[in-house]
Amino acid sequence: MHLIFSHGHLSSPDSHKIRTLAPLAEAAGLTTEAIDYRDLRDDAAGRVQRLCARLNGFSEPAVLVGSSMGGYVSVAAACRMPVRGLFLLAPAVYLNDRYPDAGLIEENYPVRCQAISVVHGWRDEVIPWHNARRFAEERRASLHLLDTDHRMADAMATISELFSLFLKNGLNRG
C-alpha cells in the first residue's frame, strides 16, 4: 500500500512532520513518498492536479497524509478519486477565501474515503480549530484537538502515537 505526504504552504517534502511520520508508515509496511509542491507555493489547484496525477499511477487507492494546505490538497484529491485513508494535520478546510482561483470542490467536501483522522491545535493561529471539528463531525471522523499551535512541533510525540493508531486500526475500518 502506498502513502503520500503533502506538505504545507511554506514547508517542504523534508519537513519535520514528514521525517517523523514516514518511518512509522514504513514500519507498518507502507511505501511512502512526499510530493514536492514548492514550485506551486500558492497554486492549490496545481497541487491537487499533481497529487491526482500521482494517484493515477497506482493500481490501488493510496493513503494520504496532509498538513495545512497539504491537508486541503489531500481532501480535494480524495473528492476526485477514492483513497484508502486520510490523516490530516491542521487541514486548511472551509477557507475558500484563501483559494479563490482553485475552483476545486464544493463546500461540503464529498471525500471518497471512510478512514479519516484529523488532528488540530487549540492554539492554531492560522486555521481555526473549529474548521477541523466541522470537517470531522460531518464525516464522523476521528478528531484530536491538542494543546499546540499551527506548526505542531511540540506535539509530534502525540501525533506519532495517533498516526500509528490510525495505521493500525483506522485503515482497517476504511
UniProtKB/TrEMBL annotation:
UniProtKB keywords: Hydrolase, Transit peptide
Family matches, as InterPro entries: AB_hydrolase_1 (IPR000073), AB_hydrolase_fold (IPR029058), ABHD10_acyl-thioesterase (IPR052382)
GO molecular function: hydrolase activity, hydrolyzing O-glycosyl compounds; mycophenolic acid acyl-glucuronide esterase activity; palmitoyl-(protein) hydrolase activity
Tagged with keyword Nucleotide-binding: no
Reactions catalysed, as given in the entry: S-hexadecanoyl-L-cysteinyl-[protein] + H2O = L-cysteinyl-[protein] + hexadecanoate + H(+); mycophenolic acid O-acyl-beta-D-glucuronide + H2O = mycophenolate + D-glucuronate + H(+)
SUPFAM superfamilies reported in the protein's UniProt record: alpha/beta-Hydrolases (SSF53474)
Positions of the AB hydrolase-1 domain: 3-144
Enzyme Commission identifier(s): 3.1.1.93, 3.1.2.22
Coiled coil: none
Reported function: Acts as an acyl-protein thioesterase that hydrolyzes fatty acids from acylated residues in proteins. Regulates the mitochondrial S-depalmitoylation of the nucleophilic active site residue of peroxiredoxin-5/PRDX5, a key antioxidant protein, therefore modulating mitochondrial antioxidant ability. Also catalyzes the deglucuronidation of mycophenolic acid acyl-glucuronide, an active metabolite of the immunosuppressant drug mycophenolate.
Protein name, UniProt field: Palmitoyl-protein thioesterase ABHD10, mitochondrial
Source organism of the structure: Wenzhouxiangella limi
